[in-house]
Design goal:
Blueprint lengths: L8 H18 L4 H16 L29 H21 L2 E4 L5 E4 L10 H4 L29
Antiparallel strand pairs: 1-2
Helix pairs in contact: 1-2, 1-3
Subunit structure: Interacts with RIP1.
Protein name: Mitochondrial zinc maintenance protein 1, mitochondrial
Subcellular location: Mitochondrion matrix
């Protein structure tokens, strides 16, 4: 396997740091989720191909267990694409994920940060107009045009 491309090392470090910062901000006050996220990110960025670990394996990895890395040939363009995906994941984590806590009255208290993206619901208030047809009532029957039901045979 070829070593990690030197030209992409700085970008990979930047994506790693962005994911760590985003997970710290997003999962502040939830150490279990933060630890799972940090473990998964560390496993991903310690792999030469930046491949995420299988689901559920992030919480079961111990430091003493020897692990055999999967050796796979991957092109530099694919690694650059994965780095960009991790940058996008960090942006998404910062802006769109919030933590909620159920209080004693049964209400959810959301921890919204200054980086959380808040929508204004303008698109919901003003929906796009439906297309009109030249004959909107073409298939509508009039009250007197209803066909009588056939009589039942005895």
């Amino acid at each position: 396997m070829a070593p990690f491309p030197p030209a992409l090392k700085a970008a990979a470090r930047s994506a790693y740091r962005a994911m760590m910062r985003a997970s710290r901000v997003t999962f502040q006050g939830d150490p279990a989720r933060h630890l799972q996220m940090v473990t998964a990110v560390r496993q991903t960025f310690s792999s030469p191909s930046l491949t995420p670990p299988p689901p559920g394996s992030a919480s079961t990895v111990t430091r003493d267990a020897p692990s055999e890395p999967l050796v796979e040939e991957i092109e530099e363009s694919e690694i650059a694409k994965r780095i960009e995906e991790w940058q996008e994941a960090a942006r998404y984590l910062r802006k769109n994920i919030v933590q909620g806590v159920l209080d004693e009255r049964g209400n959810w208290k959301l921890r919204v940060t200054d980086q959380t993206e808040l929508g204004d619901n303008a698109s919901i208030k003003n929906p796009p107009k439906l297309p009109t047809t030249p004959f909107p009532n073409r298939n509508r029957r009039k009250c007197g045009d209803a066909k009588p039901a056939p009589a039942a045979k005895a």
